[in-house]
Amino acid sequence: MSILRLLSDGLSIITISMCLVLKVPQIKKILDSKSAVGISVMGLLLELTSYTIMTCYNYTNGYGILSYMDYPIILIQEYVLIFLVLKYLNLINTPMLLAVFGYFLIFIGLLTNSLPKTILTIMVPLCTPISASSKVAQLLAILKAKNADAVSPKTWMLSAFTNLTRVFTTFMDSADILLLGNYTVSVALSSSVLFAALHYRKIVKKEE
Questions:
Q1: Where are the domains of the chain?
Q2: Which ranges does the record mark as transmembrane (predicted)?
Q3: 80 CB-contact burial (10 Å; exposed 0-12 / middle 13-18 / buried 19+)
Q4: Are the CB atoms for 158 and 18 separated by under 8 Å?
């Protein structure tokens, strides 16, 4: 096995390990503050869409588990995060529950190939703009509120780092241009959200 392959597998393991706690700082931040101010619901839903599509795409294409294990891991944390944000924003209602039911029906259908695989082929190229839009939505939410108290810089720092490592591991594993493009854009935008969160947290501290 080549040194580059060993490095790729090592980075994959590190990335997966970090993804086990990727959303935990953000979840803890919301629980501690009992507030979701500055958190973009639209951003979270776009993230959910992107993670779901990429999980199904990698799984149904039979890619190495180490190259995409972070997606299902983050997806579980995303469910918890969305629930908490909806709870603290008082958005849990019947239409929302019906939407959740519909989401899981589609997710299972894509994962098991009960739905045509061509859906994933069409949707995957859209994941880059979807993922980018989710981060832009979060960035705009921070800028609009001029408040990042409920936003965890640690989560966005981990996000930027894990996406950066995935640029390399994806190149080594499949060199899938769609995946590489998605990860590269995610690195840039996750870093932007991180810097915005740090900036507004610093301003609040100065005012205090």
A1: 1-205
A2: 36-60, 72-89, 96-115, 177-198
A3: middle
A4: yes
Q: How many whole angstroms separate alpha carbon 96 and alpha carbon 85?
A: 13
156 in Cβ contact with 103 (< 8 Å)? no
157 token code pair: 């720092």
The amino acid at residue 191 is: S
What's at 1, amino acid-wise? M
Name the pTM for this structure: 0.73
61 close to 7: Cβ distance less than 8 angstroms: no
pLDDT tens for the chain, 208 residues long, are 578 777 777 877 887 888 888 888 889 989 998 888 778 888 899 989 989 998 998 899 888 777 788 889 989 999 999 999 999 999 999 999 999 999 999 999 999 989 988 888 888 888 878 878 888 888 888 888 787 777 888 888 988 888 888 888 888 777 778 778 878 888 888 999 999 888 887 665 555 5
